[in-house]
Specification:
387 residues, alpha/beta, Rossmann fold, formyl-coa transferase, domain 3, 2 domains, 6-stranded parallel beta sheet, 3-stranded antiparallel beta sheet, 41% helix, elongated
Length: 387
């Protein structure tokens, strides 16, 4: 089955996570993605987990892409990049604002070469504004966006924001970039023209705080109900009796039908006001069951719930297996599994491609496709401008 983006050519100047996440999704849908790396390579190539010098972290973010490693300070290389732009549909970069302009590869310069080019810039704060030039990685954006302080407020007894290990801003920014590129491709079908997409990871994070941005403007007296892990005899479970029907199902599951007549729980408003009490009473029941037992009983009654699981357990989860959520791909050190896109398309292929390019592995082939002679490729390598 073909991919929805078959025939779309992408020039990928991204590294680390946000940009590569976006371009990996483009590759998953069939786009030809040419990753342009420094001669040293994307720094994630050196990050664990590594086997025999190959990083599966890098492989996850860059499956299905070609690689060309070159010196972007070389006028010869820049001239070739501009020739390559002529045949590309999309360019994605996540340098700090201004870097691509110093290379002579800014949106205006490349639009003059290829007016149909869709040029997506991903940065911490966006291309404009007083913080545009500030360096930023996902943990910095988590702090700057208010996300970490919101979470601190939600953690009773915590004295400082939580340590960051999952880079939400990167994934969110990459996902928004992917979506914006699709919209630009669709608009190009009507106008014949590309455009510049200026994506701010800060704004992506602020946009995620749907309730909190409103609460900050219109604070109320009552605390928002929070979803708290409930202890079991061997772990934890999340229980979310959000709707009136869920509450009735919960009362049946735990053998407490009298809760329905309890004045603390008669209406949604009553339950919200006494949410912590409801969860504490529910925990008295979960504590005498294993997490697996509690999940089975609650689920049988229709209560939204899930026991807490380690990520290693998820790799063999029957639900994920049934949907083909993981793909097996290979690099120079062997096979490993990576997540597929979280959607299935009835008319096209959407899955990780089974290829992880070595650093600069496709440089010669990409230049040959441009009509560059072998002798010139050799000269660029001799000068140290091309790997």
């Amino acid at each position: 089955m073909s991919g929805a983006l078959d025939g779309v050519r992408v020039l990928d100047f991204t590294s680390v996570m946000a940009g590569p996440f976006a371009t990996r999704m483009l590759a998953d849908l069939g786009a030809e993605v040419i990753k342009v790396e420094s001669l040293e390579g994307d720094q994630v190539r050196a990050r664990p987990p590594r086997r025999d010098g190959f990083s599966t972290y890098f492989g996850t973010l860059n499956a299905g892409k070609r690689s060309i490693a070159c010196n972007l300070k070389s006028p010869d290389i820049i001239a070739l990049v501009k020739r390559l732009v002529e045949s590309c549909d999309v360019l994605v970069e996540n340098f700090r604002p201004g870097v691509m302009k110093r290379f002579g590869l800014d949106p205006e310069a490349l639009a003059a070469i290829n007016p149909r080019l869709i040029y997506c810039s991903i940065s911490g704060y966006g291309q404009t504004g007083p913080k545009a030039l500030f360096p930023a990685y996902a943990p910095v954006i988590h702090a700057a966006s208010g996300f970490d302080m919101v979470n601190l407020r939600y953690q009773d007894g915590a004295e400082r924001p939580a340590t960051t290990g999952i880079f939400i801003a990167d994934v969110l920014g990459g996902t928004h970039a992917f979506g914006a590129i699709q919209a630009a491709l669709y608009q190009r079908e009507k106008t014949g023209l590309g455009q510049h997409i200026d994506l701010s990871m800060l704004e992506a994070m602020v946009g995620m705080l749907v309730f909190e941005t409103q609460e900050a403007q219109f604070p109320g007296d009552a605390r928002r109900p929070l979803y708290t892990p409930l202890r079991t005899s061997d772990g934890f479970i999340m229980v979310a009796p959000t709707s009136p029907r869920n509450f009735e199902q919960l009362s049946d599951a735990v053998g407490r039908p009298e809760w329905r007549e309890d004045p603390r729980f008669l209406t949604n408003a009553d339950r919200n006001a006494n949410w912590a009490t409801l969860l504490a009473l529910t925990e008295q029941w979960t504590l005498v069951h294993t997490a697996e037992e509690a999940e089975a009983i609650l689920s049988r009654h229709g209560v939204p719930c899930a026991r807490y699981r380690e990520i290693g357990e998820l790799l063999d989860d029957p639900q994920l297996e049934a949907r083909g959520a993981l793909a097996e791909i290979g690099d120079g050190a062997g096979r490993f599994r990576v997540p597929n896109p979280p959607f299935r398309m009835s008319g096209s292929r959407a899955e990780a491609r089974d290829h992880v390019a070595g650093l600069g592995a496709d440089g010669g082939a990409v230049l040959a496709e441009l009509g560059v002679e072998d002798a010139r490729v050799g000269a660029l390598r001799a000068k140290g401008d091309l790997l």
